[in-house]
Amino acid sequence: MQDTKGVDAGLLQSRYRLTKQRAAILRALEDGRHLSAETILERVRAQLPGVSLGTIYRTLDILRSIGLVQIFSHAGAAAKYEAALEKHHHLVCTQCGEVTNVNVSEALTLSQTIAHEHGFDDVDCALVVTGRCARCADVPATASG
Ligand SMILES: [Zn+2]
Ligand SMILES: [Zn+2]
Fold it and tell me: What is the mean pLDDT of residues 58-66?
């Protein structure tokens, strides 16, 4: 198991000849975090002040169709977006909501075994592991700040 890194927006911009809006969204996501469309809007507006939330959603859809952005939603929470190229799984802290990318090479093998037993093909698997992250576990429940 291994953390996956964010993407290099500059590199992708030259490779895919991205428009200003697409490049700005990738830069907003460059730190590898999982952000809501609203948070992406705030970050993009620092570079392109006139951008609307509708444009953010449309541009995210395009970036998803190219395969540069992935969407993650869990337990009814608002969808979060990330700039990631590789298929990966997620660790979610139930206390602070932090989402961490992890690679679990065994997950697909196991899913394929289960799916084939039930006659499924075209198998995919999205693993979400929930728990309390190390940072939250360190903080006593009574502490503030
Ligand atoms: Zn946490
Ligand atoms: Zn992710």
Answer: 95
- Return all residues near 53 (Cβ < 8 A) that are at least 6 apart: 37, 38, 41
Pick the CATH number of 1-85 from 3.30.390.10, 1.10.10.10, 2.60.120.200, 3.10.150.10: 1.10.10.10
Question: Whole-angstrom Cα distance, residue 70 to residue 119?
Answer: 28
CA of 138 to the centre of ligand 1 (A): 9
Task: Give all strands of the β-sheet with 128-131 in edge-to-edge order.
Answer: 99-102, 89-93, 128-131
Element housing 92 (H / E):
strand 89-93
Q: How many angstroms is it from 89 CA to the middle of ligand 1?
A: 17
pLDDT tens-digit readout, 11-25: 777 777 788 999 999
CATH topology for 87-145?
Dna Ligase; domain 1 (3.30.1490)
For residue 17, the tally of other CB atoms under 10 A from its CB is 9
7 against 89, higher pLDDT: 89
Residue type, 73: S
Q: Is the pTM of this model over 0.85?
A: no
